[in-house]
Here is the input.
Amino acid sequence: MENFTPLSAAIGGLLIGLSAALLWIGNGRIAGISGILGGLVSARPGNTAWRAAFLAGMIAAPLLYGLLGGTIPTPTVAATPGMVVAAGLLVGFGTRLGSGCTSGHAVCGLARLSRRSLAATALFMATAILTVFVTRHLLGA
Here is the structure.
């Protein structure tokens, strides 16, 4: 395995769990990114500030990490722009179909022992495994 970084992965997981718990305890909201972003577009009055702050924090955190001396890897995407757009649209469709994304279902839903989130997460993972298998082994990408 290349790029195996268990310490930074564990710290990242702890920070994700902490942010999800703090949002739940402090605001009574689930930290599902698709729901937070989607709710920002059509939010009720007085329900936009926390959504904007959460999303701004997601953008600002790695930038702050970089300013403090951390190394931010440069992502490389081995796909055409059309494939990236298609993948994004499919992910968006899937989050609507599944009534949430992996952050809402896998991180928050499983922690609340939600059977619906367990089913959604299992389906997300099965789809990801199948997609990787098809693209790498059948299509040779």
Summary: The chain has one domain: 6-138. Residues 6-138 form one domain. The helical segments are 6-27, 33-41, 49-67, 81-97, 102-111, 115-138.
